[in-house]
Amino acid sequence: MTKCKTFVALLLCTLVLCWGTIAEASIFHFSGTRPITLGLINGHLGGCPPSPNCVSSQSEDFHQIAPLHYNTDRTTAVAKLLDVIKSQPNSEVIKAEDGYIYSEFTSKFMGYVDDVEFYAPPEGNEIEVRSASRLGESDLGVNRQRIETIRSLFE
User: Fold this and answer.
1) What DSSP letter does each residue of 15-54 carry, written as one string?
2) pTM score, two decimals?
3) pLDDT in tens, 42-91
4) d(CA 84, CA 72)
5) Burial profile 58-83: b = 16 or more Cβ within 10 angstroms, e = fewer
6) Is residue 17 a part of any domain in this protein?
7) How many structural domains are present in the chain?
8) Which 3 state secondary structure label does DSSP give 86?
């Protein structure tokens, strides 16, 4: 019986010591496959699927969301946006080059991955945005809320 109590005590101690790491990780991993349609095509981000789990500043239907605006130079705006993205929980910048940023956001509990893209064209003062869930039909407004949160921290 003492071995059992010792084992349980060690197990509990291990869980307590590792709780910070466990609490930050997703319990499940429904990441899906990274889409091949990411990136720019003739200066435009990819479109949204017919499902409601996507928003894009380049859409004209219910997926539409306003682009981000800035009043500095493009390089400064993109650097600030990168800082905002990196400050968000469960985000990872995958690619950042020539005004284009691709990042992945992973939901805390289920491990769903959303693909989030930004593009600051060389001319103008807008940053185009697209945020889409890889899996499922509905995201309960998570992608729209994410972009609005980023907007509030950026603008």
Assistant:
1) HHHHHHHHHHS-SS-------TT-SEETTEE----SSSSE
2) 0.80
3) 999 999 999 999 999 999 999 999 999 999 999 999 999 999 999 999 99
4) 16
5) beeeebebebbebeeebeebbeebee
6) no
7) 1
8) helix
